[in-house]
Amino acid sequence: MKKRSALLSVLGVLCIAAFALVLSACQSLRDMVREPALSVHSVELTNITFTGVELLCRVNVENPNSFDIPFPEVDWEFFVNTNSFIHGIVKNDNTIKSRGTTVVDVPLSVTYAGLYNTFKSLKDTRTAEYRIALGAKFTLPVLGDKVWNFEHSGTIPLLQMPKISSPSFKIDKLDFTGAEILCSVNIENPNDFPLPFPDLSYDYTINNNSLIKSSVEHAGPLAAAAVSPVNIRLRVVYADLYRAFQSLRNSGEVPSLLALSAAFPIPAFENEKSLTEIPGNLPLLKAPSLSFKGISVKNISLSKLEFEVDWEVENNNNFTLNVKDLSYDLRVNNSQWGSGRVLNAPVIAANKKTTIPLTVSLSALSMVRDLTEIITRGTDTAYALGGNLNLAGSLPGLTDFNMPFNFNGNTKLKK
Asked: What is the pTM of this model?
């Protein structure tokens, strides 16, 4: 029994010694395996477009050991204004060389469509605060699985909705057949990158009635951080207008409205439209009418005949018309009685009929005798009166208006 007890005691001492040696060896191994050092090298904004932003987070991993260690598994989470938005994991089968430093790239892609669908309030801001939380997991000899957590904060620029500003309405050209209208707007792109040109459509209404609907052709992308002017030219033909809206025939002016709708082909704004209204007043002009009022004799003698030819111009507009030029050619019984230009023609009053007289003097004795006989007998006389009346209006933008005329027929010369 004594021998057996002594043997057990010796075995116990040996086991304790062996366990101590194992613990000592493990401690030595632990002392030999050193933990890697990790730090954020940089976070860069690598790309920004109208679809979103791309970031690259770069992490420095330093291996202080004399042996290679496995590449870490990096899980990351992206927070926007303290709210979790996206997350992911980066894996790699490579190793980190002994006593070397490796940069681990963690790419992140943030779409504006997803961002605005999650955080609608961000549409009214220019930047958003973000935080990247990273966890690097290593499987190391002896030490087992170890996780290092660290983070980085910053801001990202946000996509801004373009704005339509400075709407204007201008009568660019005006005559008695119609009006050419110039409507202008500015499209402001506040972003630091180009945007696609919007889908622009417009509806031009008169007295709340649609007259012209169309769209604006694409004029190329909107330049970054710039203002792009857009001009819309419209042509209103009075004849078409009066056929569509007969009640306007007696109007001198009518209110109009150009409603402009802009839809931007951008994923983040696919359901949004920008609406702009450009009010104006469209003058409704009526072409003056010209009529022949006859020929009357003012003075007659054996050596000379003076007579007066009268035109009448009817102006149905709310503004005066100035006669810039009036040329004529008068023939009676196939004989030319006179041609030339009328000097000092009167102003054509607004909404009135105005007579333009022309005095012609004939001195040929034979012609005077023939005309005296015509006047005395009271016979009909064939006449032909042709020429051109050039009018200028006092209305801004109104172009000169030519009225060619050609009157012919039979008349009695009035004494």
From this structure: 0.70
